Amino acid sequence: MTIRLNNKEITPYEGETIIEAARRAGVEIPSLCYAKGAKHKSSCMVCAVKDCKSGQIIPSCTTMPVDGMTLDAECDEVQQTRAMSLELLLSDHRADCEAPCTLVCPNGLDVEQTLACYDNGDYAAAYSLINNAFALPEIKCTTCKAPCEKACRRGTVDKPVSIREIIEEICSQQYPNNNETTNNQIVKPSFLSRLGRFTDEEKEHLKASVTTTSRCLHCACAGQQGCKLRLYAAETGVKRPRYEVSSAVRVMQKQTIADDLWFEPAKCIRCGLCVYNTDNGFTFKGRGFNMQVVLPHDNAANIPFSIAELCPTGAIYKS
Question: Which of 38, 75, 150, 234 is the least buried, fewest Cβ under 10 Å from its Cβ?
């Protein structure tokens, strides 16, 4: 049996789906709900390809090849389908890839990570981050108009974090600098997802639950490094989500699975990989647009650490 994909002849192995045959032949097709060797069901349509004979747009992760098929994985229709699918998925994904305070700092200071070190009592690490951005002892915060505090998400809850005061407090001490100072270049990511506005209920919850020393919400995504949703959005040319956030799941609420394994439901796009690949672990709750992926408390002990590698969005991650 042979098929043609992007004018390339491919001989699929028995039992292979289109995406498996394509990737083996060096044709990379993106997918969020598929992972090699894992149980899955087609849901995201990011793996869409066009059957040139029928004109249909089909999911390559579950469609079996048929002898003589002619497929296109690069045409405009396919790209438009993928972009729309990503934008719809992003409307269910409440997360800031990067903290707004970090993005607007004119010196490129990783403000959120600096505050994380401060809250953890690791002042030496916080000092090193500041030194890398400002080349201490010079600090430009005193003359800065503080865009970080204007962008601070805590300010939408009650009042913004006093970022400049905390930086000055850290720098007033002579902590050893364990990192070499480098020429810091500000790199703006090509794609940024967004939390959306906090509901009144979420604001009250955050006021009561976030009691760190700095008061920082630490809204930067801890699972962003392996996030395929962000990667494919950037590759597809999606700059910002087109649709407003539609998820009703409470934002920034994380559940402990194990000591260093976490689950954040608001970042879940309901691909089902964690459901299909755990035994008595994750499960679906509800139907249709209201369906959610949940982890009953009693099932947490059944979750292997390897499940984080299947999650395409950072909703399940290792810290």
Answer: 150
Mean pLDDT on 32-61: 95
CB 6 within 8 A of CB 73: yes
Is the Cα dihedral 237, 242, 248, 253 positive or negative?
Answer: positive
pLDDT at 10 over 80: yes
pLDDT digits (tens, 9 = 90+) for 96-105: 889 999 999 9
Question: Residue by residue, what is the 3-state secondary structure of the chain?
Answer: CCEEECCEEECCCCCCCHHHHHHHCCCCCCCCCCCCCCCCCCCCCCCEEEECCCCCEEECCCCCCCCCCEEECCCHHHHHHHHHHHHHHHCCCCCECCCHHHHHCCCCCCHHHHHHHHHCCCHHHHHHHHHHHHCCCCCCHHHCCCHHHHHCHHHHCCCCCCHHHHHHHHHCCCCCCCCCCCCCCCCCCCCCCCCCCCCHHHHHHHHHHCCCCCCCCCCECCCHHHCHHHHHHHHHCCCCCCCCCCCCCCCCCCEEEECCEEECHHHCCCCCHHHHCCCCCCEEECCHHHCEEECCHHHHHHCCHHHHHCCCCCCEEEC
Cα-to-chain-centroid distance, residue 99: 12
Burial class (CB in 10 A: 0-12, 13-18, 19+), 95: buried
Angle between helices 76-90 and 228-236 (to 10 degrees): 140
Q: What is the pLDDT of residues 124-171, one digit of tens each?
A: 999 999 998 988 888 888 889 999 999 999 999 999 999 999 999 999
Kindly give, in sequence order, each residue whose CB lies less than 8 Å from that of residue 127, ignoring residues fewer than 6 positions away. 136, 170, 171, 173, 175, 176, 177
For tokens 């290792």, name the residue: 318
Distance of CA 235 to the CA centre of its chain: 14
**Tokens standing for residue 149:** 């505090």
Single out the residue of 312, 316, 317 nearest to residue 31, CA to CA.
Answer: 312
